[in-house]
Design a protein that fits this description.
The protein is mostly helical. The protein folds into four domains: 70 residues, lambda repressor-like DNA-binding domains (434 Repressor (Amino-terminal Domain)), CATH 1.10.260; 161 residues, Arc Repressor Mutant, subunit A; 68 residues, no CATH class; 34 residues, no CATH class. Helix content is 46%, strand content 4%. It contains 15 helices and three strands. A three-stranded mixed β-sheet has the order 1-3-2. The protein starts with 7 loop residues before the first helix and ends in a 20-residue tail after the last helix.
Length: 349
């Protein structure tokens, strides 16, 4: 925390509520022009005006004195495949929520030592001649994953030192986001409303970005998809199982490989186990059955555990009360439960 008012936190607070400057003006009694200049750092705020902002936005005044800057989505959203479908308002809310959680995580992780079994790799794709599949295989080997499916992707990421935060994105268009802030472990944000089979592929896609992409390129989305496919469904181990795949066979393979039927059919096409014509026919069949929106045989969910362990340190410390946790997070006590990792409801005595 700082003794200096941080003008960037005004925009962060406002956009987390889904408000425009005009809406904040109406709720706070401050002029839209003043709010605009305040967010741009061209005006200072008096104690009275800070109180007005805090009261309108529902944050404690300490929220506006947090260190740090309001940052965008980063590389994982540059060419995001769902971007065009998502309303800008929803994107701004999600962007703000991601920033708020990152600042909270930074304060938590600064207080707790996290020990991991494996290091988190960073491999420049240009240094591997664009061999995406080789990079995916190297990550699996580095993490000592057994042959076959990745039974718990979230656990594998956490064991390697990554942090997974699962919460409701407020939109169904985006399943996962990622970033690797300076001085912090890789952070993965997972939409709790996404079906687990789809969420796992999106999370592996984000893992590909974190591992391979340090600068943006127009091929990075396809490369991340290739990484996810090889990481979750290694060609040498799955190819024979995909021969002559049909809808029933995809449904049988789904719970074993813990990926969607769609992903299995795409993998069969990419590995040459079905023809493009067969792929098109199967894909249309999925649509006719309604499986492109909701598939049968949902796989069991995965839940992050690392952050819950970090929270437990505070929850089991008698000197750290519910009120203290709200102050650490710079939110009101009534809003604190929604920032509980993965599941709501802080259990602090």
């Amino acid at each position: 925390m700082s003794d200096t008012f941080n003008h960037e936190m005004v925009q962060l607070a406002r956009e987390s509520r889904g408000w425009t400057q005009t809406q904040l003006s109406k709720q706070s009694g401050l002029t839209q022009g003043f709010i605009s200049r305040l967010e741009a750092g061209e005006k200072d705020a008096s104690e009275e005006k800070i109180a007005a902002l805090a009261g309108a936005l529902g944050y404690p005044e300490s929220f506006f004195f947090q260190r740090g800057s309001y940052e965008g989505f980063g590389l994982s959203m540059v060419f995001y495949r769902k971007r065009a479908k998502t309303k800008v308002k929803n994107l701004k809310v999600l962007q703000a929520e991601k920033n708020i959680r990152k600042m909270q995580l930074q304060r938590l992780l600064d207080s707790v030592d996290v020990f991991t079994n494996h290091r988190f790799p960073s491999m420049d794709i240009d240094e591997h001649d664009g061999a995406v599949e080789s990079i995916a295989s190297l990550v699996r080997a580095n993490w000592q994953l057994p042959l076959g499916p990745v039974n718990n992707l979230i656990q594998s990421i956490e064991r390697a030192g990554g942090v997974v935060y699962r919460f409701d994105f407020g939109t169904k268009d985006i399943d996962a986001l990622s970033e690797w802030p300076e001085g912090m472990p890789p952070l993965f944000y997972l939409n709790s409303k996404a079906p687990m089979d789809r969420a796992r592929f999106s999370l592996a896609h984000e893992l590909g970005h974190i591992v391979m992409h340090h600068t943006a390129s127009d091929t990075m989305e396809r490369e991340a998809d290739r990484f996810a496919a090889e990481f979750l469904m290694p060609a040498k181990q799955i190819k024979s199982q995909l021969e002559s795949i049909d809808i029933k066979k995809a449904a049988r393979l789904k719970p074993y490989w813990r990926v969607s039927m769609q992903a299995l059919i795409y993998r069969a096409r990419d590995l040459g186990q079905i023809t493009p014509t067969q792929f098109t026919s199967l894909y249309k069949r999925l649509g006719h059955l309604g499986y492109r929106k909701t598939e049968p045989n949902p796989i069991s969910p995965e839940h992050p555990k690392l952050l819950n362990k970090v929270f437990s340190v505070f929850e089991n410390t008698n000197e750290f009360s519910y009120s203290d946790m709200a102050k650490l997070f710079c939110v009101t006590e009534s809003e604190l439960p929604r920032y509980r990792p993965d599941r709501g409801g802080l259990r602090i005595a």
